[in-house]
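Incident log, structure service

09:12 report received: a user says their structure output differs between two submissions of the same chain.
09:20 pulled the input from the user's history:
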Amino acid sequence: MLDKIVDIVAWPGKGYLSAVGRFPSGIYTAIEPVYVAELKPDELMIAAEKIIALGISHLPEVTAEEWRKRPGPILKATKARSWRRLGHMGASYGISWTEQHIWVDMSYRDK
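09:34 re-ran on a clean worker, output below:
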């Protein structure tokens, strides 16, 4: 199980960092609140520290239908029209860690 997760979605000129939740099935997902920061190291660090302080929330299990109807907090915050548009114009970076490991993920830019 992951101890901390920070995901940053870069969308023209801003970084969007959402809180993280975990379903009993082990799936992690973005939840509100979403912090918005300029793409500057100091501002991103302040937002990341807020996300880390929130921790990983425990979420109730949802059905497939409930999942499909769930609004994505990142889409809502960026005002992107779709995940496809976000993939074309944005980028995603993630850092996840436990006491033994750190993982860094970067999205493939879908141009």
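09:41 both user submissions now match this output. Likely a transient worker issue. Closing.
09:42 reviewer note: The helical segments are 41-54, 64-69, 73-78, 83-89. DSSP finds four helices and six strands in the chain.
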